[in-house]
Specification:
Layout: E1 2-7, E2 36-42, E3 45-46, E4 49-50, E5 54-59, E6 72-76, E7 81-85, E8 97-103, H1 118-123, E9 128-134, E10 143-147, E11 152-153, E12 161-162, E13 173-182, E14 185-190, E15 203-204, E16 209-210, E17 213-214, H2 215-246
Antiparallel strand pairs: 1-2, 2-5, 3-4, 6-7, 7-10, 8-9, 8-13, 11-12, 13-14, 13-15, 16-17
């Protein structure tokens, strides 16, 4: 019998029992919940009764984390992209940290072991890089994050990640990853491109907004200024012509 003692799962974990024939010395206990501590109890029985109980406390391995929601692009500036991040409720282990990934091409996958810093990616001719790592306490609720703000971010003391300012001539795509580490195992999951495809969703930041002002509004203001200037010039010209024509006449 396996009885749950503690778990990372948000759903109830029911006890499970198995019965095996005489002579079995090894058995795989199926149907257990990942990242859960169980009290495993073994009892041997025959026609004369049951023997003493033997028990042991064990953890099941963590599984691949729950996939994050895709970052929502809020606006794009000259060298930044502001996105909204949503926290992940991971059913299969702890949330150890978040990764924010930037890519310059519309790929739906990448080699996880090739994810590096911006400068390392430049040296290796990669089109994607880790721009920041955030701790779970930084994403407890929906959080706005500015990609390209020029700061350094780190969730541990081993390494900090440079959130390099973005080049205005390039198109960028943003993805969110979650890292789960527990008892020597590490699992990572990234936002998916579609419900039936596991990979990275690459979001294009629409160029119709710049520093909070829409391009349409800027165009309208420019046209209005030009028209206003032309009307002013025409008014001055008409005034000068009238003054020149009637300026020398005196009325009695």
């Amino acid at each position: 019998t396996a009885t749950m003692v503690e778990t990372f799962s948000q759903t109830p974990v029911s006890p499970r029992s198995w019965t095996y024939p005489v002579g079995i010395t090894r058995a795989r206990l199926l149907g257990l919940t990942p990242a859960t501590r169980y009290n495993i109890t073994i009892c041997v029985g025959n026609s004369f009764g049951t023997g003493p109980l033997i028990y042991e406390l064990v953890w099941t391995h963590i599984a691949e984390p729950t996939q994050p929601d895709t970052p929502e692009v809020l606006k794009k500036g000259q060298s930044t992209i502001t996105v909204k991040l949503k926290p992940v409720i991971n059913e299969f282990g702890p949330v150890s940290k978040y990764k924010i990934i930037v890519s310059t091409d519309e790929r739906n996958f990448f080699e996880d072991n090739c994810l590096k810093s911006w400068i390392e990616s430049q040296n290796d001719n990669l089109t994607y890089y880790i721009t920041a790592e955030l701790c779970p306490k930084d994403v407890l609720n929906e959080t706005e994050f500015v990609v390209g703000d020029g700061k350094r971010y780190s969730c541990d003391s081993d390494k900090s990640w440079y959130n390099v300012p973005l080049a205005s001539k390039d198109q960028y795509h943003v993805s969110l990853g979650i890292v789960s580490s527990f008892q020597g195992l590490t699992k990572t999951s990234y936002s998916s491109a579609s419900p039936s495809h596991n990979g990275v969703i690459l979001l294009y930041a629409p160029p119709d907004e710049e520093d909070g002002v829409s391009e349409g509004l800027l165009t309208f203001l420019k046209i209005a200024i030009v028209i206003g200037g032309l009307l002013l010039v025409m008014s001055i010209v008409v005034f000068l012509l009238i003054r020149r024509k009637y300026g020398g006449h005196r009325y009695i």
